[in-house]
Amino acid sequence: KGCKLVGCGSAVPTLQISNDDLSKIVDTNDEWISVRTGIRNRRVLSGKDRMTDLATEAAKKALEMANVHPDDVDLVLLCTSTADDLFGSAPQIQAALGCKGNPLAFDITAACSGFLLGLISASCYIRGGGFKNVLVIGADALSRFVDWTDRGTCILFGDAAGAVLIQACESEEDGIFGFDVHSDGEGNRHLNAGVKEHEIEGGINGPIEGFPPKSSSYSCVQMNGKEVFRFACRVVPQSIEMALQNAGLTRSDIDWLLLHQANQRILDGVATRLEIPTERVISNLANYGNTSAASIPLALDEAVRGGKIKSGETIATAGFGAGLTWGSAIIRW
Ligand code: ACO
Fold first, then answer.
1. pTM assigned to the model
2. 1, 23, 227, 298: which could join 10 in a potential S-S bond, CB 3.0 to 4.6 Å?
3. Ligand 1 pocket, 228 CB below 6 A?
């Protein structure tokens, strides 16, 4: 049994924030940001807009492209680290889409590797669990967890959602050939957004020491940019080589390199290591910044709808980020 990608879609907020806009709130400038990251603009949720609305819109577009009715979806995987509900937002998206075929819906939390892990999970559910139509949505609103006074992090991120529909098929049509996945909790200190430590200590006024606990909130994104940069440039080429090997393919089989859109210099560094020419590297960083779990399906959707990626082409894709987590998959559009 195989599984193939049959639809994609994406959605971004309407509010656009340029590097010049950011220079009005923190001590930075367009040149510093664009030279070091390749980012010029990002989209940010405003007002009452929610991450789940973006995710639902992206998923609707993927279903339309795939020509699959919501009732025929049997699994909704929402890859996000910024759920609107602590208990998970996937079931709300299932309801908003009107999926009445009794599907399973749950969240996957793995930061910028989330979509990649969702894609691989979808293929496992199809191959081993008899699922037929799986929606994989990558959506994040890191703007809500960024310290907008910290110029070292706030310049990097944007909000977005992207989705793909993965469908069971005959093995000869298989579109997810091989993958490679890892995590390293030791590296968590380099990139995290943990529960605020003073809130873990618990209450101090009750009759029982440390009880009742205080309700928690999360810190803003904390990042050691240099360490994350080194980590990505080291592990991503190795992971893609391993995924290629698992797929029985070589570098020359890759038509497109589609990495998590974190930083243009990471994209260029990985492409150089794998000897993939610049024109074969998908990048939309300039317009959207780092949209975490949304970045791969957002870039895929743009490239497919823009006629860049064509049916039957082979894509090496990789996610990497907080956890630390990272992984690659070799897929065919
Ligand atoms: N504008 C102007 N100056 C700045 C800014 C800014 N926005 N941010 C930092 N600086 C200053 C620093 O204060 C420092 O000044 P100093 O030399 O006087 O001390 C100088 O610029 C250099 O700062 P560094 O942090 O050393 O800059 P670096 O070259 O490492 O670039 C960056 C920082 C762009 C964050 C880089 O490290 C990077 O891209 N790392 C990868 C980060 C990443 O991709 N994270 C996300 C991946 S995982 C995920 O997606 C969640």
1. 0.95
2. 298
3. yes
Q: Angle formed by the axes of helices 264-274 and 225-247, to 10°?
A: 40
Half-sphere exposure of 74 (CA within 13 A, CB side): 11
The pair of three-digit structure tokens given for residue 133, joined into one six-digit string: 């139509």
Regarding the beta carbon of 321 and ligand 1, being less than 6 Å apart is answered yes
Q: Which numbered atom of ligand 1 lies nearest the CA of 292?
A: 50
Do 155 and 22 contact (CB within 8 A), yes or no?
A: yes
Considering only CA atoms, which residue is closest to atom 48 of ligand 1? 321
Beta bridge partners of 166: 5, 134
Q: Is 292 in the pocket of ligand 1 (CB under 6 A)?
A: yes
Atom of ligand 1 nearest to the CA of 153: 35
Active site residues: 112, 260, 290
User: pLDDT tens digits, the chain, 333 residues: what are they?
Assistant: 899 999 999 999 999 999 999 999 999 999 999 999 999 999 999 988 999 999 999 999 999 999 999 999 999 999 999 999 999 999 999 999 999 998 999 999 999 999 999 999 999 999 998 999 999 999 999 999 999 999 999 999 999 999 999 999 998 888 998 999 999 999 999 999 998 866 555 555 667 877 777 778 899 999 999 999 999 999 999 999 999 999 999 999 999 999 999 999 999 999 999 999 999 999 999 999 999 999 999 999 999 999 999 999 999 999 999 999 999 999 999
CB 244 within 8 A of CB 315: no
Ligand 1, atom 37, residue with closest C-alpha = 225
Strand partners, 76: 105, 135
Grouping H, G, I as helix, E, B as strand and the rest as coil, residue 154 is coil
Substitution site in 147, 156, 183 for ligand 1 pocket (most atoms within 8 Å of beta carbon): 156
Q: Which 3 state secondary structure label does DSSP give 221?
A: coil
Type of residue numbered 236: V
Residue with the nearest Cα to atom 36 of ligand 1?
Answer: 225
Q: Which residues pair with 18 in a beta bridge?
A: 41
Could you tell me if the CB of 28 is within 6 A of ligand 1?
yes
Q: Is 120 in the pocket of ligand 1 (CB under 6 A)?
A: no
